[in-house]
Amino acid sequence: MSDPYLQFAQSGFGxxxxxxxxxxxxARLRRHRPGQPALAGPVLTGGAGRLDAVLKAHATGGDxxxxxxxxxxTGIDNPEQLRALHAFFNPVIRQLGPCGRVVVLxxxxxxxxxxxxxxxxxxxxxxxxxxxxxxxxxSTAQLVYVSEGAEPNVESTLRFLLSAKSAYVSGQVxxxxxxxxxxxxxxxxxxxxxxxxxxxxxRGIGAAIAEVLARDGAHVVCLDIAAQGSELSEVANRVGxxxxxxxxxxxxxxxxxxxxxxxxxxxxxxxxxxxGITRDKTLAKMTEDQWDAVLSVNLASQLRVxxxxxxxxxxxxxxxxxxxxxxxxxxxxxxxxxxxxxKAGVIGMVRSLAPELxxxxxxxxxxxxxxxxxxxxxxxxxxIRQAGRLMxxxxxxxxxxxxxxxxxxxxNPASSGVNGNVVRVCGQSLLGA
Length: 433
Ligand code: NAD
Fold this sequence. Notes:
By secondary structure, the chain is an alpha/beta fold.
C-alpha cells in the first residue's frame, strides 16, 4: 500500500529530480505524536473582531518560521475591509514553516442580514481555498465560521486545526455553533469514561478510528462481520476494547445494539458508522444485487441504527454520531453510482438529523475522505490509484489515522458546537472542490 512516487520524491535524488522537472513534490506530513508540541513553531495572530480572547489564548510569542497564522475576520463587514487579509498575510505567508497552519475565523454568512457583510464573509471562502492551494510543504488552510455567541465553543476546533492531527485536512469550511460548553477534564484524554461504537473496525480506517478513540480515553466497542472475527479480536485487544461480531444490515442489528449498550454500558456516547463496501460497475452493467448491497451497508443500516438508538434513548447526552461519506459522494465517480448515491445520502443524513441531535445536546457530523491508503484503495487499478494520490494539494494519499483524528475531534465533548458539518479529509482534492 506504499506510494512509490512519494518514496521517490522524498529521497535526496528524488527531490533533485522533481524540482528540476517541475513534478509534484509531496512533503513529509507531520503527524501527531504524543508528547510532541502541537505545531513546529509559534502562532502569529491578526485581525480584529469577536474572537479577540480566543486569539490571545492561542497566540504564542516567537519568531518565524511560524507554526500557524490565525486571523480573526469576524470584524470585517464590507468588501473594502477584506484588504485586511492581504495586509496581514502578504508579509508573513512566506514565513510559515513546513506543515504550518493557516486558520481564518469568520461569521456564518447565512446568519447575517446586511448585504455587504454577507458578501464579505462569503468571500472568505475563496480566499482560504486559494491560500490552501498556494501553500507548499504540507501546510494547510481552513476557514472556521463561528456563530455569534459560539465564541467559547471554538476551542476544540482550533486545537485540532492548529496541530499535526489535521495533517491531511485542507481548504475546508467548518461551522461552529453555540452549544453548551463542555471542557474535557484532560485534553490529552478527552474521551475518558466515554463508550464508543465503531463499525467496520477490523481493518483500514475503522481500525485506526478505534485506536485513536481509545488513545483519547474511550472504551471502544469494535464491530465487524463474523468473517472478520480474528482481525476484529486483534484490534479490540490492541485498543483494550470489546469485539462485537454483527452484520450491520441484519434486521435485528438495531435492537441488538440497543440491548448490548444498555445492558453493558447504560448507553453509548459515540457512534461511528464506518462500515462501508464498494461494488463498482457502470450503471448499465450494475446488477440489482450490487446496487442493493452498497445502499444497504453504506446508508440504510445507518439510518436504522440511528433510529433504534435515538428511540430507545441509548445515545447519551452530549452524544456523537459520525458518518463516513466520501468525496465520491460529493463529486460523483465513474462506476460508482451506487457508492456515490449512498455516500451523498450520508451527507443528507447529517443535514437532516443535526437539528434533532442538537435538541438532545448531541451532534451528528460526517467526514468525507479522499484517497486514503487502505485495502479498499489498494484494489484500485495502478494508473487510477496514482492519479488519486496526486490529484490534491498535498500530492499524496492520506492515511487512515488522518480520518480517525478528524473523527476524534468531532467526538471530543468540547465539540458540542460542531454539528451538521461534512469535513473532507482529502488533502484538498481537486475532485468536487
Ligand atoms: P475496508 O474495506 O478496509 O473496511 C471496511 C470494513 O467494513 C471491513 O472490515 C468490512 O468487513 C466492514 N463491513 C462491511 N460490511 C459490513 C457489514 N454489513 N456489517 C459490519 N461490517 C461490515 O474499507 P476502508 O477503506 O477502511 O473504508 C472505511 C470507510 O471509509 C468506508 O465507509 C469507505 O466507504 C470509506 N471511505 C474510504 C476511502 C478510502 O480511500 N479508503 C475513501 C472514502 C471513503
